[in-house]
Specification:
Elements: E1 6-12, E2 16-21, H1 26-32, E3 51-56, E4 63-65, H2 73-77, E5 80-82, E6 86-88, E7 92-95, E8 128-134, H3 146-158, E9 165-166, H4 168-180, E10 184-190, E11 202-208, E12 216-222, E13 226-233, E14 238-246, H5 256-263, H6 268-291, E15 298-305, H7 307-314, E16 336-337, H8 338-341, E17 350-353, H9 363-372, H10 374-381, E18 387-392, E19 396-401, E20 406-411, E21 432-438, E22 445-449, E23 460-461, H11 463-475, H12 492-498, E24 509-512, E25 515-521, E26 532-535, H13 536-559, E27 569-573, H14 582-588, E28 599-603, H15 605-615, H16 617-629, E29 631-632, H17 639-647, H18 660-669
Parallel strand pairs: 1-7, 9-11, 12-15, 15-17, 18-27, 20-29, 21-23, 27-28
Antiparallel strand pairs: 1-2, 3-5, 3-7, 4-6, 8-10, 10-11, 12-13, 13-14, 16-17, 18-19, 19-20, 21-22, 24-25, 25-26
Helix pairs in contact: 5-6, 9-15, 9-16, 11-14, 13-17, 15-16
Length: about 675
């Protein structure tokens, strides 16, 4: 069939039919049919998660596979193909298997737990204020225009003798609001922004009647995986609602590199911006419904996120971030208006994107340093030793210092610890194995699964489960320090002993279709009807991820002439950090071997810092100072990183003296 021939493509379930030119990718034909397939690797054919079944309408081959990565011979024989790597060459029926859900599983916290602040909230240090204005209506004797009348009332209410500014959209509706409210209104005034510390105060909104009891704003963290939003009352300074959801961009790439690549394709940048805006607007709708307010009542938003996420949010081309010399379009961003971006807030609300440091260390880290209280920890310790701040998520960023100095770097750990790139990896949702214990005599695992109390059966392994599993496999001898599977576990004597156990179904370590593997869950016990395994390739990917994180920390310490044992406290931020087991993480060599009581797991420090910046001018200024003061190390240009990385590829490390607690444990096990 010639490339200009037209093929009929029918999608199941649903029966949607489209005509597509021969040579069209299945993924593009699906979009033409209005079907949104998940492509977590950004369409590079690496993840295998867009696999579909293709059946030719006339019994002949109607597709051409460019890649069969992650497809077995049985899969190909059954008609499976990667939608992002397979073109249509004839009339074909495409069946789409159930996709991994990225539906909302994290919802608004209706209790809105109190977020403690390291400072006393003072409204005078808050740049947004609301004022009740009572004015006499115009008459033939007083023909002062509406805007001048409002400015005069504001001068009386604030004592400010100079003029005020107003945006054209607000001015357009001013007269209608004044007359409908019978000349008693609430004016919301923004006295300054970080990039406009001087100049006339701006009237953001004019609302009918007395609405001074509340003043609504939002703090936002755009994570690669999760977007988190706080609704804040600027009158009390409290977080009154919280919501989180998966970043809709996950459909187009699970890591920043995949999304940068996708953004350079066709209309990819606009699509990625739309996906994250849809996520943000969904969160706004959630918190507004809970508080029974309208989104237009929210008059400011402060935004944190890594450089790629902020570029995509603002529709700034991110391509230069991944290309040498790794320079973003900006590290400091101009304030803009919600209406310009398409955010469902008051259209004239200021959107303040916090400043970052470099191509892979962004506002999530500068904001996170403030939100983690790193400086306070240094002062409390009083030992003069530096503190390490880690944000472990889809990306791995770290900061070392004592607040008089700060050095930072980012490592390309990839999203392995969030289940991506792992054969049976998945996100931390229902059915994910989150904890594993292995019996050192039988090598049989015991697992804990998210949702098992409700009868949920295991579907795969999430990040915390992978860390737990890998550490247990190492400590019990299922794998050696290089990560190699031990096929000598099951000699004839051992098999004879295990065969007497009623639960034994065969050796867990075996050769599978994709090489060596360890069976975590047998098919009859899983929700998918197939064995859940961790493969030798998975183990190698996880070792690389953990090695990159530890090596980044080691390079930071080395850059200032220190060793890892001189770190006094480890602060772990990020949602992922809340769920990892510190004991297992140290056993892997993912985290440094310091006393467990010296670890603090803080959750989302990025959104906490954004919240602080929303409330207080000085906090906002402090984040800018943190960003300016950090010394950034580009690991790709640092020869010592490769040496540290190579040393950290072993469990827990080639130098076991760096992990004395693990050495002691291994000695006891022996």
């Amino acid at each position: 069939m010639a490339d200009n021939d037209v093929c009929m493509v029918q999608f199941q379930p649903g029966g949607a039919i489209v005509d597509a030119p021969a040579g069209t990718l299945i993924i593009d034909a699906a979009r033409q049919a209005g079907i949104d397939l998940n492509i977590p690797c950004g369409g590079q054919g690496r993840c295998g998660r867009c696999a579909v079944v293709a059946r030719a309408a006339n019994g002949t081959d109607a597709i051409k596979r460019r890649s069969t990565l992650r497809l077995s011979a049985d899969d190909i024989a059954a008609g499976y193909a990667l939608a992002c790597q397979t073109t249509i060459t004839g009339d074909v029926e495409i069946t789409i298997p159930p996709q991994e859900s990225i539906a909302r599983i994290l919802t608004s916290d209706k209790t809105a737990r109190a977020i403690e602040l390291p400072f006393e909230f003072d409204r005078d240090r808050q740049p947004l204020r609301s004022y009740l204005l009572s004015m006499t209506p115009p008459s033939l004797d007083d023909q002062t225009d509406d805007w001048s009348r409002v400015q005069a009332a504001l001068r009386r209410a604030t004592g400010w003798e100079n003029g005020f500014a107003i945006d054209l959209p607000t001015l357009r509706r001013l007269g209608t609001v004044l007359r409908a409210a019978e000349w008693q209104v609430t004016a919301v005034v923004e006295w300054d922004t970080w990039d406009r510390p001087a100049g006339p105060p701006r009237v953001v909104d004019v609302q009918p009647g007395d609405q001074t009891s509340h003043l609504w704003a939002a703090a936002l963290d755009i994570g690669t995986t999760t977007v988190t939003l706080y609704l804040v009352d600027l009158v009390s300074g409290r977080v009154v609602a919280q919501a989180a959801d998966y970043n809709g961009q996950i459909r187009r790439g699970e890591d920043v590199i995949s999304r940068i690549i996708y953004a350079s394709k066709n209309n990819g940048l606009a699509e990625l911006q739309r996906l994250v805006l849809d996520t943000i607007n969904g969160l706004i709708a959630q918190v507004c419904e809970f508080r029974k307010i309208e989104p237009q009542q929210i008059v400011k938003m402060v935004v944190a996120g890594n450089p790629t996420m902020q570029h995509l949010f603002l529709a700034l081309p991110p391509a230069s971030i991944r290309l040498a010399p790794y320079v973003p379009a900006a590290n400091q961003y101009p304030t803009t208006r919600a209406g310009e971006l398409g955010i469902d807030l008051n259209p004239q609300a200021t959107v303040d994107c916090l400043p970052g440091v470099a191509s892979y260390v962004g506002a999530d880290i500068s904001s996170g340093v403030l939100g983690s209280g790193l400086c306070s920890v240094v002062e409390t310790n009083g030992d003069g030793l530096p503190v390490l701040f880690l944000d472990i998520g889809t990306n791995g960023e770290m900061v070392l210092g004592d607040c008089d100095w700060l050095v930072t770097c980012a490592c390309s750990a990839g999203p392995a610890f969030e289940g991506a790139g792992v054969y049976h990896g998945m996100r931390a949702t229902l059915g994910a194995i989150e904890e594993v214990w292995i019996n050192a005599q039988t090598f049989e695992p015991t697992i804990s699964t998210i949702g098992q109390e409700q009868g949920e059966r295991p579907r795969g392994l999430c990040g915390s489960g992978l860390i737990s599993l890998l550490a247990e496999m190492f400590i019990t001898g299922v794998i050696d320090k290089s990560g190699n599977l031990n096929f000598e576990l099951y000699d004839q004597a051992k098999l004879a002993t295990l065969a007497e156990l009623p639960t034994f179904r065969g050796p867990r370590v075996r050769q599978g279709e994709h090489g060596g593997e360890y069976v975590v869950v047998w098919a009859e016990d899983s929700a998918t009807g197939e064995d859940i395994v961790i493969t030798a390739v998975d183990i190698d990917n996880l070792l690389r991820a953990k090695a990159a994180i530890y090596a980044g920390c080691a390079v930071l310490a080395q850059s200032v002439g220190m060793s890892m044992d001189m770190i006094s406290t480890v602060l772990v931020g990020g949602s992922f950090g809340k769920h990892i087991n510190v004991e297992k993480s140290v056993q892997l060599g993912l985290l440094p071997d310091v006393p467990w009581e010296n670890f603090q797991f803080l959750g989302n420090t990025s959104v906490r810092g954004a919240y602080m910046a929303l409330l207080d001018r000085e906090a906002r200024q402090r984040i800018a100072e943190i960003a300016r003061s950090m010394t950034y190390l580009e690991l790709s240009a640092d020869n010592s990183f490769y040496d540290q990385f190579t040393s950290a590829l072993f469990l827990p490390h080639t130098d076991i003296t760096l992990f004395p607690s693990v050495a002691a444990l291994l000695e006891r096990e022996t």
